[in-house]
What does this fold into?
Amino acid sequence: MGHFCSEKILWVLALGFTCVLVSINGVEASHKVYPDYQSLTASNVGRLHRTAYHFQPKRHWINDPNGPMYYNGVYHLFYQYNPKGAVWGNIVWAHSVSTDLINWTPLDPAIFPSKPFDKYGCWSGSATVRPGNKPVILYTGIVDHNNTQVQNYAVPANLSDPYLREWVKPDNNPLIVPQAGENKTAFRDPTTAWLGRDGHWRILLGGKRKHRGVAFLYRSRDFLKWTKAKHPLHTAAGTGNWECPDFYPVLKQGSYGLDTSVLGPNVKHVLKVSLDVTRYEYYTLGYYDTDKDRYIPDDTSRDGWNGLRYDYGNFYASKSFFDHSKNRRILWGWANESDSAYDDVTKGWAGIQLIPRVITLDPNGKQLLQWPIPELETLRGENVHLSGQVLKKGDVVEVTGITPAQADVEVTFSFAASSLDLAEPFDPTWKALDAQDVCGRRGSTVEGGGLGPFGLLTLASENLEEYTPVFFRVFKAGYQHVVLMCSDARSSSLMDGLYTPSFAGFVDVDLTDKKLSLRSLIDHSVVESFGARGKTCISSRVYPTLAVSDKAHLYVFNNGTEAVKIETLDAWSMNRPRMN
Ligand code: DQQ
It folds into this structure.
């Protein structure tokens, strides 16, 4: 599926990045090009694993969310789209609009190759709504067969069209071209612009210098003439090319979101980058020094592969925007398929946008919290409620009365204080591993867990030939506890040739109330999970063969020696929004 990087490539990164573009374990960087498939129109659309309430066009390939923007009562989602086939290529900015972020109306593509400055592709970028309620899109145009990248702008043809259907690319494009000595093929994905105290606009472009990821900073007085700042806003060694940077403020205290230009003592900044080489993203929280126009990550935020991630699973090229109608910042991320390009061509589609998430700063100031937009709850149908049920070692309880292949589940587990004492010791040698490797060794059926593994078995077949467990394991490390959350696709399907990692992240959670909560959004071929109210999020793409449609089941389980209690569990069948 050519999307994710194995642990081996990370060692290559650590060793100084000598062969990052070499395929390792069959996994390569950047979008893989399949010339034979690129323009193969899909006549049939495979329904089996199609999602019901995640954003998808009728057919063909999608990748990065672009834009997005809220304008005059309408949400606009633009996204990278191949109108001709189910693999990456022929990229345009597809356009859909919504008034609730749930039901979508597709429109014609907003931006497509037509001019010398974007003849070979209209790649990712962002929207900015300038003062006077004037939207503008900045995007990367591809100008030749070598993928040389320039930055262009587009404006709505008619501001009184409520849907802003048509976009114009003025003739004074491109606005920014690579200079001599700059890397012309790692120079892309302009951010939403923000205004500095000096009244000048600023944007970032993603790129690299040798093996150092770079967020190039550009300034402009009039949004047309852009000058590169002497210093990038931020760089990090050994991270390779940065794609789709995102830079925005978050309130230090409080739950509402901020417009991108807000500065001041009450805010921290977030810098997110997408790592071209590994196809994972990380973010840091930090201080934006507006005098020097530099960003300094906090001590608690690490640059690089081991940094904080929005999502420890299949989530890439994300982009946030400020929704001033509800004073919140919303994050969109793309999840690629985890099957083969051949499977994608056969099913006629590839890629989904994950459910938009509201982002806020964790009160601990050390990470973000993410939660599905509340509008999603309007799709909830039949409900099942459980409470007070105790799960002993080996218990598996089925949740019936809803549609398990298309569901939203929220569960809170509780446990005794004594169980914390009996948690499995955290093996000190695991400190060198990341969470995914620990999950690989301590999966949902591995014995020896005192407290955990417990959680959900999603998209499960009746006799558990297939299931995607989403679960916690609690470990004891001296006087502290380490909480691991896994979404393990290894047992998800009987089909061969799939990418089935044991995605996992650690959860920085206070266990003094002896509770752990989990929410999973299950939608046929995706399980999107939120641990401890959005501290750790993991999305997995899975393709069951038995656990499909009405043959799918949902269970709650405990394989730890210590009992856990289902404090409350609510599961809902999810209805299908209007999308096409
Ligand atoms: N996808 C776009 C690029 C971006 C990459 C091309 C990230 O602009 O860097 O489709 O997935």
Summary: The pocket of 2,5-dideoxy-2,5-imino-D-mannitol is lined by residues 31, 63-64, 80, 91, 123-124, 140, 188-189, 243-244, 317 (CB under 6 Å). The helical segments are 7-14, 341-347, 417-421, 435-441. The domain at 60-372 is CATH 2.115.10.20 (Tachylectin-2; Chain A).
